[in-house]
């Protein structure tokens, strides 16, 4: 079905158009145009709900890189439907809210371009069937989230929060990418559906566990699970619509989506079960525990998001236990945890979106989010208070709001799993209901803080930055709709259950779907069962803890400030920077000698080591030509001259000794029957010596080396070793001729080139290209010399002084 | 003969390396010049020494010495001359502008 591919592309196209429209219609708030995109997509998707509920799925492929199996394949099933509806639905509401929230003075076109990029990327994540394409969209969500968090880029904290979230989510995204590649290596396909259908024959593969762990790392970092949750509170520096959209309803659920999508792949495994449910429970507890201590409303909501995401994650983990049993009917009980997870996913998006918008309204109208400065706003903002009340009570799990239903189901799942007798649950299973209950108590406490601290109590006008007034109606529409949904889902839960969640269940449990009835009717009243008593316990304990909040707050002082994960993150970043600076400064000294030492040492180690380890050295003098006494004399004169340069007292001596070397080589060329070389060498050496002598007058005095003795000794050792390696390689090569020389061919110089001088024929005819470029080198050097001497740009200011 | 020349060029390489490692710019340039001498000698040696006549076809000899290394060295001599000349002028300009040829003092800045 092409329309799904189109749904991903449309937001990107709109993102391109927005800046143009913004210029064209500067009178109208650009958000209204943007609003059309998610609203239209939402309506288009809703039309498919009935057929999806009937078990139909749609997929469509647009070829991208077919030779690598990377194609833009979309797949619309129950699971992606839920997420897509959340993305477009909450997206529409957030855009509506942002129209009233952001003033036209902000750079709106940037905001909406980033938001549309994010929306398209997020739709791409949930619709993609191809692992590589999924990864592409996954990273796009990270990048657009980075841009949105740093929307007010002139603030330091925004930039820090954006950097932190990018570092953490991209690290996870990258590990997920490696996990995807492992999956591809195992199953030889990039399609998620094909991976799901063939994975059962690869569960013993050595890459199965690494792939699972890497993909989970990606999911945990994106969904802010313990201990990667630290980026989410810092991401609250973003504008509130962004926090509401990305950091509560959609992006942080990408990790949840990944876990749900890969449950059929890894779900039957014990490691998956313990990691997903264990990390989820830990996150649930840690998030709710830390939310209570926050004084900033947005930070509080961030920690509550972390906690709720942990709850959803743990339910997916518990639900995966059902896959361990395969087809048996008893496993259906455990799939209800997944049902609850999907249900709570929807519920959380509704009430958390509303709560963020409420906080945004408070911030917008009052100028602060600090709960110590807020109070008594109920009379001033009755509508806002109502929405906050609905959202918070739903989050706390109270009737008659949808959070009550999902919390009851969560308790059921936790109680059921504690009685299961696999994965050594008989020993540790009892922890599930205990942690779940404790986390819920803290959740209740912070929910009460959200409602009562800002809205009830005494009103302090002097603590506020500006006189507060009621929220504009436009800002209340979006949270109002969400609040109505919160109540509506409580009264008609089976509508959501039957049309959205049941089809998604068959995506998570494709094998079980045919064998068992996965859905269940949701009812608010079960009778006096343990779950109800647990909820009552939560309320009683929560009220108690809330009232005596100030007395037990000292608990938080027990943990020193420096033992938090934030500190660990900052510490490791600064350490990483500091250490790498130290290491780089340690060897990049800026002195030519040091770099030359590295090069020479590498030469000695690599070439000398190779000679030593491969036994390549051979020594044989039998093929050598004879040596006459003149050649002995020239050789020793050259050696003596070369060594004497090192001890030369004046630069004139050094230059002359260098001349001796050059002219001796010319003599050698005569001996070696190379007349052209001898001629050239004589001329060049004369000119070089003249050049040295010309520079003589201008060059600095030839001073004795002022380097310390130790450096000199090291230099001596290095240079002797380099020479020795050079000699050994030369001798080894000299004695290891592999084939005859090709020079016999050049003896046809007269027939082929019409010249009797073979060397000249090679230079001018056979290999004239070398000669041409050599002339170019000479030309460039000449130009270089000329410009170096003539052009003196820096002299300008000196002449100015004259 | 070949062994002797290889050992000779080995000595030249050692001297050149020592000069390149020194702190004076003029010594470094001298070192590169000597290193090119060593390279030329090595190329020559690899082609075989003294076996055959001068590579001129008019000589009516039974065999000629290898002409290809000679052509290569000829190219190399010219290039190393060009580079040496440029280095020398660069050193001259550096000295007139900066006032020192000590590579230790030529380092951009000290941040220790």
From TrEMBL, chain A:
Q: Where is the MrpA C-terminal/MbhE domain?
A: 713-790
User: Where does this polypeptide localize?
Assistant: Cell membrane; Membrane
Q: What would be one Pfam family of this protein?
A: Proton_antipo_M
What topology does it adopt in the membrane?
Answer: Multi-pass membrane protein
Query: One MF term from GO for this chain?
Result: antiporter activity
Cite the entry's keywords alphabetically. Answer: Antiport, Cell membrane, Hydrogen ion transport, Ion transport, Membrane, Sodium, Sodium transport, Transmembrane, Transmembrane helix, Transport
Residue ranges of the NADH:quinone oxidoreductase/Mrp antiporter transmembrane domain? 128-427
Family (UniProt): Belongs to the CPA3 antiporters (TC 2.A.63) subunit A family.
Q: Where is the NADH-Ubiquinone oxidoreductase (complex I) chain 5 N-terminal domain?
A: 64-112
Q: Where are the transmembrane segments?
A: 6-22, 29-49, 78-99, 111-127, 133-153, 165-187, 207-232, 244-260, 272-289, 301-327, 339-362, 374-396, 430-452, 473-492, 532-552, 595-618, 630-648, 655-672, 678-699, 715-733, 771-789
Task: One GO cellular component term, please give it.
Answer: plasma membrane
Q: Name one GO biological process term.
A: proton transmembrane transport
Its recorded name reads Na+/H+ antiporter subunit A
Q: Which Gene3D superfamilies match?
A: NADH-ubiquinone/plastoquinone oxidoreductase chain 6, subunit NuoJ
Q: Per the database record, which ranges form the MrpA C-terminal/MbhD domain?
A: 637-701
- InterPro entries per record: CPA3_Na-H_Antiporter_A, MrpA/MnhA1/PhaAB, MrpA_C/MbhD, MrpA_C/MbhE, ND/Mrp_TM, Nuo/plastoQ_OxRdtase_6_NuoJ, Proton_antipo_N
Q: Which domain of life is it from?
A: Bacteria
From TrEMBL, chain B:
GO cellular component terms, semicolon-separated: plasma membrane
Annotated localization: Cell membrane
Q: A Pfam family name for this chain?
A: Oxidored_q2
| Membrane topology per record | Multi-pass membrane protein
Which NCBIfam families does the entry link to? PRK08600.1, PRK12660.1
Main localisation, per the record? membrane
Q: What is the lineage of its organism?
A: Bacteria, Bacillati, Bacillota, Bacilli, Bacillales
| Keywords in alphabetical order | Cell membrane, Membrane, Transmembrane, Transmembrane helix
Q: Which family does it belong to?
A: Belongs to the CPA3 antiporters (TC 2.A.63) subunit C family.
Kindly give the InterPro entries that the UniProt entry links to this protein: CPA3_antiporter_subunitC, NUOK/Mnh_C1-like
Q: Where are the transmembrane segments?
A: 6-21, 28-47, 67-92
Keyword Transmembrane recorded: yes
The cross-references to Gene3D superfamilies, in alphabetical order and at most eight, read:
1.10.287.3510
Source organism of this protein record: Virgibacillus indicus
The entry's protein name is Na(+)/H(+) antiporter subunit C
């Amino acid at each position: 079905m092409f329309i799904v591919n189109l749904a991903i592309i449309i937001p990107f196209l709109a993102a391109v158009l927005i800046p143009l429209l913004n210029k064209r219609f500067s009178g109208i708030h650009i958000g209204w145009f943007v609003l059309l995109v998610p609203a239209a997509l939402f309506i288009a998707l809703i039309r498919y709900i009935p057929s999806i509920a009937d078990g139909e799925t749609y997929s469509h492929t647009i070829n991208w890189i077919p030779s690598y199996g990377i194609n833009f394949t979309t797949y619309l099933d129950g699971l992606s439907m839920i997420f897509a509806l959340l993305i477009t639905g909450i997206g529409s509401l957030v855009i509506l809210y942002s129209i009233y929230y952001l003033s036209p003075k902000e750079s709106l076109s940037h905001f909406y371009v980033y938001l549309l990029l994010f929306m398209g990327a997020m739709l791409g994540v949930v619709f993609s069937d191809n692992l590589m394409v999924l990864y592409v969209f996954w990273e796009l969500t990270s990048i657009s989230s980075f841009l949105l968090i740093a929307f007010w880029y002139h603030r330091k904290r925004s930039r820090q929060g954006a950097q932190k979230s990018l570092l953490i989510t991209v690290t996870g995204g990258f590990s997920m990418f490696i996990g995807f590649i492992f999956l591809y290596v195992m199953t030889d396909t990039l399609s998620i559906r094909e991976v799901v259908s063939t994975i059962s024959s690869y569960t013993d593969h050595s890459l199965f566990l690494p792939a699972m762990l890497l993909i989970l790392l990606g999911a945990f970092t994106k969904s802010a699970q313990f201990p990667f949750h630290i980026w989410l509170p810092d991401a609250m520096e973003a504008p509130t619509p962004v926090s509401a959209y990305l950091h509560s309803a959609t992006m942080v659920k990408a990790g949840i989506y990944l876990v749900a999508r890969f449950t059929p792949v890894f779900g039957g495994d014990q490691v998956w079960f313990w990691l997903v449910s264990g990390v989820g429970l830990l996150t649930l507890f840690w998030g709710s525990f830390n939310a209570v201590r926050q004084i900033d409303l947005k930070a509080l909501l961030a920690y509550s998001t972390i906690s709720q995401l942990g709850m959803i994650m743990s339910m997916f983990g518990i639900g995966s236990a059902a896959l361990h049993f395969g087809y048996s009917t008893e496993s259906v009980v455990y799939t209800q945890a997944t049902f609850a997870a999907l249900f709570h996913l929807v519920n959380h998006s509704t009430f958390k979106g509303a709560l963020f918008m409420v906080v945004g309204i408070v911030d917008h109208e009052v100028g602060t989010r600090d709960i110590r400065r807020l109070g008594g706003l109920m009379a001033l903002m009755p509508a806002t208070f109502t929405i906050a009340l609905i959202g918070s009570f739903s989050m706390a799990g109270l009737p008659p709001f949808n959070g009550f239903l999902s919390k009851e189901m969560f308790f059921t799942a936790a109680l059921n799993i504690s009685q299961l007798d696999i994965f050594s649950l008989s020993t540790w299973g009892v922890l599930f209901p205990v942690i779940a209950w404790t986390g819920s108590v803290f959740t209740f406490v912070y929910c009460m803080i959200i409602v009562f601290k800002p809205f009830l109590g005494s009103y302090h006008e002097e603590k506020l930055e500006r006189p507060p007034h009621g929220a504009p109606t436009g800002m209340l529409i979006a949270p109002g709709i969400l609040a109505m949904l919160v109540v509506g889902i409580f009264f008609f839960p089976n509508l959501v259950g039957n049309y959205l969640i049941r089809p998604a269940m068959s995506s998570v449990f494709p094998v079980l779907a045919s064998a068992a009835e996965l859905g269940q009717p949701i009812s608010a009243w079960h009778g006096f069962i343990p779950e109800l008593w647990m909820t009552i316990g939560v309320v009683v304990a929560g009220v108690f803890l809330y009232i005596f909040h100030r007395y037990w707050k000292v608990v938080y002082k027990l943990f020193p400030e420096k033992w938090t994960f934030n500190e660990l993150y900052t510490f490791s970043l600064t350490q990483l920077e500091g250490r790498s600076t130290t290491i780089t400064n340690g060897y990049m000294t800026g002195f030519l000698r040091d770099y030359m030492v590295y090069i020479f040492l590498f030469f000695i180690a690599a070439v000398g080591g190779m000679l030593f380890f491969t036994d390549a050295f051979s020594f044989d003098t039998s093929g050598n030509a004879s040596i006459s006494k003149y050649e002995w004399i020239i050789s020793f004169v050259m050696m003596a001259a070369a060594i004497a340069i090192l001890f030369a007292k004046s630069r004139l001596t050094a230059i002359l000794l260098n001349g001796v070397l050059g002219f001796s080589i010319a003599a050698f060329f005569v001996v070696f029957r190379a007349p052209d070389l001898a001629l050239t060498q004589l001329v060049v050496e004369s000119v070089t010596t003249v050049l040295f002598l010309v520079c003589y007058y201008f060059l600095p005095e030839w001073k004795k080396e002022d380097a310390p003795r130790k450096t000199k000794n090291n230099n001596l050792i290095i240079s002797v070793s380099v020479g020795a390696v050079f000699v050994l390689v030369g001798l080894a090569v000299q004695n290891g001729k592999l084939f005859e020389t090709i020079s016999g061919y050049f003896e046809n110089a007269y027939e082929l080139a019409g010249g009797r001088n073979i060397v000249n024929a090679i230079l001018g005819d056979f290999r004239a290209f070398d000669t041409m470029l050599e002339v170019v080198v000479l030309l460039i050097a000449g130009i270089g010399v000329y410009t170096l001497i003539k052009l003196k740009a820096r002299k300008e200011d000196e002449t100015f002084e004259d | 003969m070949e062994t002797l020349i290889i050992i000779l060029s080995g000595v030249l390489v050692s001297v050149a390396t020592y000069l390149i490692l020194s702190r004076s710019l003029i010594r470094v340039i001298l070192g590169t010049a000597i290193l090119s001498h060593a390279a030329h000698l090595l190329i020559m040696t690899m082609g075989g020494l003294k076996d055959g006549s001068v590579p001129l076809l008019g000589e009516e000899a039974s065999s000629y010495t290898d002409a290809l290394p000679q052509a290569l060295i000829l190219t190399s001599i010219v290039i190393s001359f060009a580079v040496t000349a440029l280095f020398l002028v660069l050193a001259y300009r550096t000295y007139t502008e900066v006032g020192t040829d000590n590579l230790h003092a030529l380092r951009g800045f000290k941040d220790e």
